[in-house]
Design goal:
This protein is an alpha/beta fold and 497 residues long. The protein has a five-stranded mixed beta sheet, with helices on one face. Strand 9, helix 7 and strand 10 form a beta-alpha-beta unit. The protein starts with a helix and ends with a helix. The protein binds adenosine-5'-diphosphate. Adenosine-5'-diphosphate binds next to helix 5 and helix 6.
C-alpha cells in the first residue's frame, strides 16, 4: 500500500495530491473489502472464542468438582473432560488448517498420482469406519480411468476424506458411494449418502466455519470446520463444490476439479508394496485395551483378517485380567482410559508379564509424556494413525514378517493367450473357478479392487494349478489394467464352457 493511500484510507488526506477519479473508485472498493474482511475476522474470532469456551468450561468445572471431592460420578466426569479435550484438539487442528488456507500459506504440490490406486486407498482408509456403523462403502467408477493424473494428493485426499467422513457420520443406514467420473481432464467426485440429509435453509450456511445444521445433526460430534476447509481447498485447487440434498433421504456433495494427465507416465514409479494379507509364523495374540468400543471394533477389524487372535477390554482391570488369562504377545493400550490412566495399566502389565510382553501405547496426544523411571511401554503411536503405521509398529515389536498380496510385476505382460483352465485343474473345482471369474468381471465393472484381489487369491487357493493364470491376473490388477483382467476372466469362462 502506498503512503498516500494509507493516509487517505485513514482520513488524513489534507494537502495530499488528489488521486484521479478511477483510482478513487478502486480505493473505495479496496477500503470496503478491507472493512468487510475485518468484520468477518471479528465474527470469526467471536465464534472461535464461543467454540473454545464451552468445552473449556466443562473441563474447568468438572476438574474443580473432582478436586474438591464433590464429583459423585468421577468416571462420568473424566469422560466429559476427555471428550471436551478431544473437541478442543480437533478445533485447534481445524483452525491451523483454516489459518494456512486463508493466509495463503498453503502451497499446492503437483504430482503425477496413480489415480485408480489413489481412489482405492482412500476407500480402504474409510472402509472400517463405515463397517463399524454397518454401512456399505462403494466406489463407482467408469471402466476406463487415466492411470495417472496431476494433483496434490494430500489435499485431494483431505477433501474426499472430509466428505466421506461426514457422509458416514450423518448416515445410520444404507450406503455411502464415492462416484468418480473423468472426461476431458475434468474429474467429478460425488460423495453420496443415504443419511439424514440437509434442510434447504442450512445448505449454504454449513460451508461457513462453525456452522452446523440444526436438529438431528447437532447431536453428532464435530466442530463445524470440515466443510469450510474442504470448500477452501477445492477453491484453491481451482475447482467447485456443490451440494444437493433431501432431508430424510440423503445428501450428495459434488466436487469438480481439472486434473490434467501427464503426457508420459512418470519415470520409474516406485511400486507400492502389496496389501498385507497375513504374517509368517505362529499365531499371535493381541489384547486391545480401549474404552472406545468403536475404536476397538476398527482395530479388531484390521487385525483379525490378518490372522491375529484379538481380545479386547474396555478398562484397565478387565485388561489385566484378560492378559493373565490369554497371555497375549502384544497389548495395544489407549492412554486415556476414562478415569484411568493407560500408562498405569501399562506399568502394571509390565511388572506382571515382564519384558517379553510387547506394549504399544495409543494416544490422541501428539507428544509422548516424559516417563522418568523408564517407559513401561515399548512404543507409542499417535491416534488417528494410518493402518500401515500401526502394522509397521506391530511387525517391529513382534519381529514378524508380513505376507503381502502380489506387488510385482507392475505391468501386465503383453498378450500371449491366456492359460486355459483344462491344464491340470481338477474337474470338481472348475465350476468354482468359473464362478470366481464371473465375480471378477462384475467387480471390474464397479472397480472394486480389494474385492478383485480377494477373488484372485481365492482362485489361487482353490486351484494352485492355475498359477500362471493367477500371476497374469495379479499383474493386470497391479497395473490397474482392469480391462485385461476382465478379458482373462472371460477367457477362462469361455474356455470352461
Ligand atoms: P462437522 O461435521 O464437524 O459438524 P462440517 O463443517 O464438516 O463440520 O459440517 C458442517 C455441518 O454440515 C455438519 O454439522 C452437518 O450439520 C452438515 N453436514 C455435513 N455433511 C453432511 C452430510 N453428509 N449429511 C448431513 N449433514 C451434513
Amino acid at each position: 500500500m502506498t503512503g498516500w493511500l494509507r493516509t487517505w484510507l485513514n482520513g488524513e488526506g489534507e494537502g495530499a495530491a488528489e488521486p484521479p477519479e478511477a483510482s478513487l473508485r478502486e480505493l473505495r472498493a479496496a477500503k470496503d473489502a478491507a472493512e468487510a474482511a475485518n468484520e468477518a475476522k471479528t465474527r470469526f474470532l467471536a465464534s472461535v472464542a464461543h467454540e473454545i469456551r464451552s468445552p473449556l468450561n466443562a473441563i474447568y468445572g468438572y476438574a474443580q468438582l473432582i478436586e474438591r471431592g464433590e464429583g459423585k460420578d468421577a468416571l462420568g466426569a473424566a469422560r466429559v473432560i476427555r471428550r471436551s479435550a478431544e473437541h478442543l484438539a480437533h478445533l485447534v487442528e481445524g483452525l491451523l488448517d483454516i489459518a494456512q488456507v486463508e493466509g495463503g500459506a498453503l502451497k499446492l504440490t503437483r504430482e503425477a498420482i496413480r489415480f485408480p490406486e489413489f481412489l482405492e486407498q482412500l476407500l480402504a482408509m474409510m472402509e472400517l469406519q463405515a463397517q463399524a456403523k454397518g454401512l456399505a462403502l462403494v466406489l463407482e467408477r467408469p471402466e476406463r480411468l487415466p492411470e495417472y493424473v496431476h494433483a496434490d494428493p494430500k489435499r485431494l485426499r483431505q477433501v474426499l476424506i472430509n466428505l466421506l467422513a461426514n457422509a458416514i457420520k450423518f448416515t445410520d443406514h444404507g450406503q455411502i458411494t464415492l462416484k468418480v467420473d473423468y472426461r476431458n481432464e475434468l474429474a467429478t467426485f460425488c460423495v453420496i449418502d443415504t443419511g439424514i440429509g440437509i434442510a434447504p435453509e442450512d445448505a449454504s450456511r454449513i460451508f461457513a466455519p462453525f456452522e452446523r445444521a440444526r436438529g438431528a445433526a447437532a447431536d453428532r460430534p464435530g466442530v463445524g470446520l470440515g466443510l469450510a476447509i474442504t470448500q477452501a481447498l477445492v477453491h484453491i485447487m481451482g475447482g467447485e463444490i456443490r451440494l444437493a440434498s433431501t432431508p430424510g433421504e440423503g445428501s450428495r456433495f459434488t466436487v469438480r476439479l481439472m486434473l490434467s494427465q501427464p503426457l508420459s507416465p512418470p519415470a520409474d514409479p516406485v511400486p507400492p508394496p502389496g496389501a498385507v494379507t497375513g504374517y509368517v509364523g505362529r499365531e499371535r495374540w493381541v489384547l486391545l485395551i480401549d474404552d472406545d468400543a468403536a475404536h476397538c471394533a476398527v482395530v479388531r477389524g484390521l487385525l483379525e483378517p490378518l490372522g491375529f487372535q484379538v481380545s479386547s477390554a474396555n478398562d484397565g482391570a478387565t485388561g489385566l485380567a484378560l492378559a493373565a488369562q490369554v497371555q497375549p504377545d502384544l497389548v495395544l493400550c489407549d492412554v486415556a482410559l476414562g478415569a484411568e490412566n493407560g500408562w498405569d495399566v501399562a506399568a502394571a502389565l509390565r511388572s506382571r508379564h515382564g519384558a517379553a510382553l510387547r506394549i504399544v501405547m495409543l494416544s490422541g496426544e501428539t507428544a509422548r509424556p516424559p516417563t522418568p523411571d523408564g517407559p513401561a511401554d515399548d512404543t507409542f503411536v499417535t491416534k488417528p494413525f494410518a493402518f500401515e503405521v500401526l502394522l509397521e509398529v506391530i511387525a517391529e515389536q513382534l519381529g514378524i514378517e508380513w505376507v503381502r498380496a502380489a506387488g510385482e510385476p507392475r505391468t501386465a505382460p503383453a498378450a500371449p493367450p491366456a492359460p486355459a483352465l483344462h491344464v491340470g485343474v481338477p474337474l470338481v473345482v472348475v465350476p468354482l473357478v468359473v464362478r470366481h471369474c464371473a465375480e471378477i468381471e462384475r467387480l471390474v465393472r464397479i472397480g472394486h479392487v480389494r474385492g478383485l484381489e480377494a477373488e484372485i487369491e481365492a482362485i489361487a487357493a482353490l486351484a494352485p494349478e492355475t498359477g500362471p493364470l493367477v500371476d497374469r491376473m495379479r499383474a493386470a490388477l497391479d497395473s490397474f489394467d482392469l480391462k485385461a483382467l476382465s478379458n482373462l476372466a472371460k477367457m477362462v469362462r469361455d474356455d470352461a464352457a
